[in-house]
Amino acid sequence: MDLDRVHRSRIREIEASLRTFDGGLPVLRRVVDGLTPLLDAEHGLAYGFEPAEDRLRVAFLHGTSTYPWSGYRADLDALVRRTPVGWANYNPIRPERGQQNRLTASPIYDPRRQGAYGEMVRRHEFAASGHQLRVLVCEDGALDAWVGVVRTDPFTDRERRVFGRVLPALRTRLSLERKLETSAITTAALGAVLEQLGAAAFVVRDPCAVVHANSVGRALLDRSRAETLEALRASRLGVGDRYDVSRIDAPGIPGYWLAIARPTDATETRVDAAAGRWGLTRRQREVLLQIARGESNKSIAARLGCTEGTIEFHVTALLLKAGADGRSRLIAQLLSST
User: Fold this and answer.
1) Nearest-10 Cα torsion for 44, 16, 145, 162
2) Which of 255, 239, 219 is nearest to 335 (CA)?
3) How much is the pLDDT for 135?
4) 131, 108 in Cβ contact below 8 A?
């Protein structure tokens, strides 16, 4: 397929957005915003469903900003709640095999179709007399999202092929999001573990983009971002020793790694300064040093030859003296101090 430079550039931009987790606009909103001009369409739209007891409801709906989609979403939600299946020419729970991940061009509204769907379509100007080019993005037979564009005139075979160029990256991204969603508990647990380390910890995407940091890591980034990123990069390449680095190996998630700060002599210097500033006892200073090096209460107790309950007592005293509301906040204050 012969594509001009502008089309190739726009396709690359959409593919790049599908590979990026940046906390900005929802990725499907960015996709429809990119597809709409790419395919010379008037509107772009993406939506999906989720079960609600014995019914369906609209889980999300993202459309280009040129249309008031809130009314369409409310109508669609009311429709699928009343009639989970049978209102569309596909099964919205588990689309027919021949419709999964396949681009389809058709009129939006078929005058022969009666009932609530036809009434809903007629209420919305964008859909009443237009054409759509859409795909039902599915994984393991289940619908992840309806993604498409609409306009007054029919879509051409060439525009179908252009859309097809974006489809592999779109399927990969939605598959990844589903995996991340289903592992939400594991993800939350990982975040909690990183917070308890006491040392700066980062999840980094190649070449060196921080996608997650615990509170100690965020304090470092706020204080000296350029220096911290350079130290992460050096440790990743094996030419620096500030961080212990491990690759995160997971199907479909290439190029991610975990970096945890190693103890340094600078830690003792900061702990000594904090001990004077906060009026710490000798034992409290020893406990703070071990916390700063990422040790757990149990390991600190073994190292200092006392009970875990005694260490918990010292940690509580440290938090009170430092005015911190938790262990990670304590370390963040320690690292952000001069």
Assistant:
1) 60
2) 219
3) 96
4) yes
pLDDT given for residue 187 in this prediction: 59
Question: Residue 6: is it exposed, middle or buried by C-beta count within 10 angstroms (0-12/13-18/19+)?
Answer: exposed
Rounded to an integer, what distance in angstroms lies between the CA atom of residue 264 and that of residue 270? 10
Question: 161 with 130: CB under 8 angstroms?
Answer: no
pLDDT along the chain (338 residues), means of 10: 73 84 76 93 92 82 87 91 85 90 86 68 71 92 93 92 92 78 57 72 84 82 85 87 77 72 72 83 89 85 90 92 87 74
Residues 6+ apart with CB under 8 A from 338: none
Q: What is the pLDDT of residue 180?
A: 60
Of 194, 106, 111, whose CA–CA distance to 151 is shortest?
106
Q: How many whole angstroms from its chain centre is CA 118?
A: 36
- Cα 255 to chain center, whole Å? 15
Chosen CATH of 5-182 out of 3.30.40.10, 3.40.50.1110, 3.30.450.40, 3.50.30.10: 3.30.450.40
- Residue 321 CB contacts under 8 Å (≥ 6 apart), including other chains: 278, 279, 280, 284
Q: In angstroms, rounded to a whole number, what is the distance separating the alpha carbons of residues 270 and 338?
A: 8
Cβ(325)–Cβ(334) below 8 Å: no
Q: Is this model's pTM higher than 0.85 or not?
A: no
CATH number of 265-336: 1.10.10.10
Q: How far is CA 122 from CA 67, 116, 129, 159, 297, in A?
A: 15, 10, 9, 26, 65
Residues found in the chain: 338
Cis before 68 (ω within 30): no
Whole-number pLDDT of residue 37: 92
Two structure tokens written together for 292: 């700063």
To 10 degrees, what angle do helices 327-336 and 282-292 make?
Answer: 90
Calpha distance 306→294 (Å, rounded): 18
Domain segments of the chain as ranges: 5-182, 191-261, 265-336
Residue whose structure tokens are 């010379």: 40
